[in-house]
């Protein structure tokens, strides 16, 4: 009987010890999100990632995808297949991050420069139409001139999607009808013919 009570007491003591240990660890000093700190010079408790570190799952083993460079030099082309889904994704990311300065069609006439901020160059200049895709990736990653770096806001895949959409914008503003197939030219001409018909009807109704 006495031996049984001793065992119960020992178990109870062990549980109390474990509970005390957990309580102490759970209540250790910590900072809440966005809480200021007097310890660091910038007054922020949240610390930036240490230069050169990579979070788990971020390693792609594709230097071109991650840097826009091939053998240390600015590369051209794309590190993945450019599909309609990629361009649509780039369109949505462009409208969020780029259109405010670069404009919806990439002509540099966005809302922000219209209010006095430095106007970015148009994507439709000969220089940028012929620039390698890696140039755009490098600028988005590291910034250029008045443009800040976006590497912490836009992941590499989305940067490439934006570049794909920029190429689509460039083609849309500088396309040559001779580059189209006969079927594509027919599709291009059909809405124009319909529009002319509606215009003539509207003009007749006006008179």
If you had to describe this structure to a student in words, what would you say it looks like?
This protein is mostly helical. The protein has a domain at 64-72 and 80-179: Cytochrome c-like domain (Cytochrome Bc1 Complex, Chain D, domain 2, Orthogonal Bundle), CATH 1.10.760. The chain has 9 helices and 2 strands; from the N terminus they run ααββααααααα. The chain has a two-stranded antiparallel sheet. A hairpin with a 2-residue loop joins β1 and β2. α3 crosses α8 and α7 (133-142) crosses α8. The longest helix has 25 residues, at 2-26. The chain is elongated, with a radius of gyration of 30 Å. The termini are far apart.
**Which structural class is indicated by helix and strand composition?**
mainly alpha
**CATH class placement of the domain at 64-72 and 80-179:** Mainly Alpha
Number of strands: 2
Assembly status: single chain
The rough form would be described as elongated
Please state the second-level CATH architecture of the domain at 64-72 and 80-179. Orthogonal Bundle
User: So, the CATH homologous superfamily of the domain at 64-72 and 80-179?
Assistant: Cytochrome c-like domain
CATH topology of the domain at 64-72 and 80-179: Cytochrome Bc1 Complex, Chain D, domain 2
Distance between the termini: 114 Å
Major beta sheet, strand line-up: 1-2
Helix content: 40-55%
Overall residue-averaged pLDDT value: 83
Proportion of residues in extended strands:
under 5%
Rg measurement, Å: 30 Å
Please work out how many helical segments DSSP would assign: 9
Major sheet summary line: 2 strands, antiparallel
Low-pLDDT stretches: 195-207
Q: Which H/E pattern describes the elements?
A: HHEEHHHHHHH
């Amino acid at each position: 009987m006495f031996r049984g009570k001793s065992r119960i007491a020992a178990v109870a003591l062990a549980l109390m010890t474990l509970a005390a240990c957990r309580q102490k660890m759970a209540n250790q000093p910590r900072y809440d999100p966005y809480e200021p700190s007097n310890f660091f010079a910038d007054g922020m408790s949240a610390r930036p990632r240490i230069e050169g570190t990579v979070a788990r799952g971020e390693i792609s083993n594709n230097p071109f995808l991650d840097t826009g460079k091939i053998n240390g030099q600015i590369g051209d082309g794309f590190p993945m297949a450019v599909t309609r889904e990629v361009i649509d994704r780039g369109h949505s990311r462009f409208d969020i991050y780029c259109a405010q300065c670069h404009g919806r069609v990439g002509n540099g006439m966005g809302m922000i420069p219209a209010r006095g901020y430095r106007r970015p160059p148009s994507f439709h200049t000969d220089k940028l139409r012929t620039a390698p895709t890696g140039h755009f990736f490098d600028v988005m990653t590291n910034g250029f001139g008045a443009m800040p770096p976006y590497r912490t806001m836009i992941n590499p895949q989305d940067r490439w999607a934006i570049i794909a959409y920029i190429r689509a914008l460039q083609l849309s503003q500088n396309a040559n009808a001779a580059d189209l197939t006969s079927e594509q030219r027919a599709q291009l001409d059909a809405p124009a013919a319909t529009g002319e018909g509606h215009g003539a009807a509207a003009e007749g109704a006006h008179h």
